[in-house]
Amino acid sequence: MKVEAAVISEFGKPFEVKSLEMAAPSEDEVLVRLVAVGICHSDIACQHGAFAPPLPIVLGHEGAGIVEAVGANVTHVKRGDHVILSYASCGACAVCDDGKPQYCLEFGLRNFKGYRPNREPTYHDDGGEKVWGGFFGQSSFATFALSTARNTVKVARHHYLEALGPLGCGLQTGAGTVLNTLKPQAGDSLVVFGVGTVGMAAMMAGVASDCGTVVAVDVHDGRLELAKELGATHTVRGDAEDLMKQLKAILPDGATFSVDTSGKPSSIKAAIDVLAQRGTCAVLAVAPGVEVTIMPSMLLAGRKIIGVTEGDADPQEFIPRMIELHEAGKFPFDRLITYYGLDEINEAIADMRSGKSIKPILRMPH
Questions:
Q1: Rounded-to-integer distance, Cα 24 and Cα 64, Å
Q2: Which residue from 63, 92, 144, 146 puts its CA 20 to 30 A from 209's CA?
Q3: Which spans in 48-97 are helix H?
Q4: What integer pLDDT is reported at residue 98 of this predicted model?
Q5: 73: buried, middle or exposed (CB in 10 Å: 19+, 13-18, 0-12)?
Q6: Angle at CA 201, nearest 5°, toward 63 and 134?
Q7: Using CA atoms, how far apart are residues 107 and 70, in angstroms rounded to an integer?
Q8: Are strands 255-260 and 189-193 parallel, antiparallel or unpaired?
Q9: Assigned fold of 174-309
Q10: Is this model's pTM higher than 0.90 or not?
Q11: Residues 6+ apart with CB under 8 A from 69
């Protein structure tokens, strides 16, 4: 079938929207007519060569849409169902069996390699040449996607389906880190370094958990203003020369929890230094080759540094939970969204990188 898709043919170059021929779904796949898709920093990183997938390729991994068809082995969704697409996992390894699909032993294979589980390409161009897909088990920068049963999450019919795609990755990563991993209690304190989509989700989850002090740290004033509107008790410029002095003034005894979403060494170091005794720092993004120097004495007071993938979340369980929080008024992620057309993908990415847009979402031209 013919689809329109944003394609990367050379690392570091802009996306090009092209007409492609998509393969038919296999017995284990779901054909989804995409309504909209969020843009995530992982898409931008891959655009510039991260994960080294084959080229040309269709990226995108925060899709929301409606099921068009299912393979013979897919039973939990049917034609007409509203679905959110998340990360892929095998469902058969020891880690998946332990209920931790975000650490699936085949995570890299199923999310970054650029092909479907059957090792076949997803598309061909007008000349019959292969165009790769299967990014995060979906490649949703397109009007249609082929997903798998495990990364296709059925949700109730929503009039705002086009806003739900980011629940599959960015929002899940931030909110899940706080709600599933850190699990703050009422009165605890939380400092979030970097309040883009992931950090803002973590911050809103801290507010929803009744943290007494929630501090947002960022270099964009617009993001800090929005963080304040969404419940942050304090905001601090991340590039302030007296950053640690300001944080210590807010939290003289240190923070119960901190989250770094920037991956920058100085930010990670600050997220560790701000901790109280027995505090925990969650690191969610690390650039290749980044090193951070810490004093071992920092850890002797019971402090912990942990890494978290996809918010320690099983999307089949956690995506509905986030929707419930949103509908209860406790997770207003819609405040982060700016909409663009599929053909405006490069503008949307530029706005995201500049800080003009926190969570760009591409509406499909159906």
A1: 19
A2: 63
A3: 94-97
A4: 95
A5: exposed
A6: 25
A7: 23
A8: parallel
A9: Rossmann fold (3.40.50)
A10: yes
A11: 25, 30, 31, 79
CA end-to-end distance (rounded Å), the chain: 15
Average pLDDT, the chain: 96
Structure tokens at 294: 């810490």
- Which residues partner with 22 through β-bridges? 123
Residue 306: strand pairing partners: 282
Instruction: Report the DSSP pairing between strands 16-22 and 2-8.
Output: antiparallel
Helix, strand, coil percent content, the chain, rounded in steps of 5: 35, 25, 40
Work out the burial of residue 285: count CB atoms within 10 Å of its CB; fewer than 13 is exposed, 13-18 middle, 19 or more buried.
buried
pLDDT at position 159 is 81
Peptide bond into 56 cis (omega under 30): yes
Token output for 197: 């989509």
pLDDT digits (tens, 9 = 90+) for 256-284: 999 999 999 999 999 999 999 999 999 99
In sequence order, the β-bridge partners of residue 85 are: 152
The tens digit of pLDDT for each residue in 350-366 reads 999 999 999 999 999 97
Map tokens 């617009």 to a residue.
Answer: 222
Q: Hey, where are the domains in the chain?
A: 2-168+332-363, 174-309
Judged by DSSP in three states, 198 sits in: helix
Would the CA dihedral through 13, 19, 25, 26 be positive or negative? negative
Residues in the chain, overall count:
366
CB 237 within 8 A of CB 224: yes
Q: Is 76 exposed, middle or buried (0-12, 13-18, 19+ CB in 10 A)?
A: middle
| Residue for token pair 């490649």 | 139
Residue 244 and residue 269 in contact, taking contact as beta carbons nearer than 8 Å: no
The CATH H-level superfamily of 2-168+332-363 is Medium-chain alcohol dehydrogenases, catalytic domain (3.90.180.10)
